[in-house]
Design a protein that fits this description.
Blueprint lengths: L3 E2 L37 E6 L3 E6 L13 E2 L10 E7 L4 E6 L3 E6 L13 E2 L10 E7 L4 E6 L4 E5 L13 E2 L10 E7 L11 E2 L6
Parallel strand pairs: 11-14
Antiparallel strand pairs: 1-4, 2-3, 2-5, 3-8, 6-7, 6-9, 7-12, 10-11, 10-13
Length: about 210
Amino acid sequence: KKGTIKKTDLSEYSNPRRSGIWAISIDEGDELLTCRMVRKEQQVMIFTRDGMAVRFPEAEVRGMGRTARGVRGVTLKDSEDHVVAMEAVDGTESVLIVCEQGYGKRSAVEEFRLTKRGGKGVRSIIVNERNGPVVGALCVTDEDSVLMMSHLGQTVRIPMSDVRVMGRSTQGVRLANLKADDDKLVSVQIVHPESEGEDGEAAEGPISDA
């Protein structure tokens, strides 16, 4: 969560034990947030709670052994900021950025200039009282649907074909109407059709500029 990133060849995990094997050495006070499969020539995007994002070539991260600590992927704004998401992209997709208060936006990957790893990045969305901090970001296409879940258990599902692509410096639109004043979004995931059950429906979310 504190901005460290590491790349390890998949062959390093070819002999797992029942008790598991180490994947990374983590500094005290830090924790592992996420991992992604990445191909050569792809780019890495890291998103932070305070609405910043950095995009750099995967080649900027050299391959390391399983027990290595990693290198700096992004420089955080301050001690309150932390990483909320990481995605491997090809540069032609779009990313959905979601904030606590139910607002968010979809922007083209190319809106985020390609830089070297370790920088502070650029603004991905305006974090203010209306939006709240960023809770997640996903690489999406028009064929995807996204499921958002709140702290109090409300779920909202939105097809990405209903969310227009916007510029990087905009505030975004309402993606979810939270029913309780003290509720907030806590997670966002892509919904895979094969994983849906008969009663696994969620309310469709209205998209509005309000």
